[in-house]
Amino acid sequence: MADSFKIDFQPPGKVESGDLIVFVGDNLKPTPAVAKQIGSKAVDLIAKAAAAENFKGKPKSAMTIVVPNGLTVDRLIVIGVGGEKDRKDMDFVQLGGLISGKTNGKTATAVLDLPGIEVSSDAAADIALGVQLRRYSFDRYKTKKDDNEQKGITRLILSVADPAAVKKTYKARESVLQGITLARDLVNEPPNVLGPQEFAARAQALTKLGVEVEILDDKAMKKLGMGALLGVAQGSARGGRVAIMRWKGGKANDKPIAFIGKGVVFDTGGISIKPAAGMEDMKGDMAGAACVVGLMHALASRKAKANVVGAIGLVENMPDGNAQRPGDIVTTMSGQTIEIINTDAEGRLVLADVLWYVQDRFKPKFMIDLATLTGAILVALAQEYAGLFSNDDELAERLTAAGKATGERVWRMPIGPEFDKMIESKFADMKNTGGRFGGSSSAAALLQRFVNDTPWAHLDIAGTAMGSPQTEISRGWASGWGVRLLDRLVRDHYEG
């Protein structure tokens, strides 16, 4: 994001220069107030240009008129919001991204008066958030910067009815923006820069926001009996870490809510090594941990009124002479044993110990873990939804609702005794893979053995968090998926 860029909120008024952005429905007409503001000549010009360019005012469509007759602005940008049906589920964050993508003058003004749509303070703040998310880029390792992409604009004015109310609402969105940016940066970092220790140090930096952070090293984990996590870490020259982050924004006696992230900073597959093609993407196998750190930043920054625990297991899965083998049996912190069938099914081993540690130490109201856990979830849900597995209907329903509200959608998948049976082992309490079929569900069944009776949800984000599809608000490789979803969940249900 360019440091010089600024968003301002101002009341409606005449726009003299730069880009002017207005909105029309499928009848190609702006609202009466906007029509009055831009004048009848500009309204007629929109209709003529639309006919020439076959612009129908459909949602997410846009048309640019350069040096528009009757206006002093450089460009008139017309964005469609569609008909009545299209307007019911308007995603204002995505709309903000679309606005950002269409501007390239030094200054731009978007008149947030949309036909048939009420733009509340919340909606306007979401638009501003979308604008900023679109501007994200990760180019710190490029010696020659690309100046063509979004770098020209230095100021965007959002014209709103009540600027003071929108500014106040946007402050909380800025905290979420910072959390998403942090999560994206972590996922995008190269693995030689971001090992387990360096990742733990990034988590430690949250102390500046009032988060209490504790780091467990190999020695501490060995003392606790985290044999499953350490089994993954033992093949790397870089030791594992667990970072525990605590934000105490709620009442002293309130049980905390807990978020756990898989942080495999690089995953070769270990002895069961992956194919070389595409292995560079395995730097993103810590996207669950990145989300948890980003979420903790967002909650602490906006001073959320909740007690929250974030815990991340950080390891590197490498195939050296000390690496664990297929056939090994590890003893988890819970005392349960796991036979290693495939060393590339390592994320569940990391989570098994961290989940047990969190439920045992903090006795939380619920636990939600996030992990780029299985390729099988991509087969089931592509990159459109994260897989949701849960032992608690209320928690699952709340996550689903938060997903609909934010656009970070989840789809509930089955978990039950049939999948438990798939991970039965001849030699240990369980094995770490259940075979090719139902791979996401059998992985979730293993995790469920480490949560006891704690309400719990597992989000398999292998399809949504890295190598993410291009959207109006995510143009890079890492989306920062989950920060908005979980911030919304906390905001809607768990702040007292």
From TrEMBL:
Which residues are the active-site ones?
274, 348
Binding residue positions for Mn(2+) 1: 267, 344, 346
Q: Which cofactor does it need?
A: Mn(2+)
Write out the catalysed reaction.
Release of an N-terminal amino acid, preferentially leucine, but not glutamic or aspartic acids; Release of an N-terminal amino acid, Xaa-|-Yaa-, in which Xaa is preferably Leu, but may be other amino acids including Pro although not Arg or Lys, and Yaa may be Pro. Amino acid amides and methyl esters are also readily hydrolyzed, but rates on arylamides are exceedingly low
Q: InterPro entries annotated for this entry? A: Leucine_aapep/pepB, Macro_dom-like, Peptidase_M17_C, Peptidase_M17_leu_NH2_pept, Peptidase_M17_N
> Which coarse location class describes where this protein primarily resides?
cytoplasm
Residues annotated as domain Cytosol aminopeptidase: 342-349
Binding-site list for Mn(2+) 2: 262, 267, 285, 346
> What name goes with this protein?
Probable cytosol aminopeptidase
- List the gene name: pepA
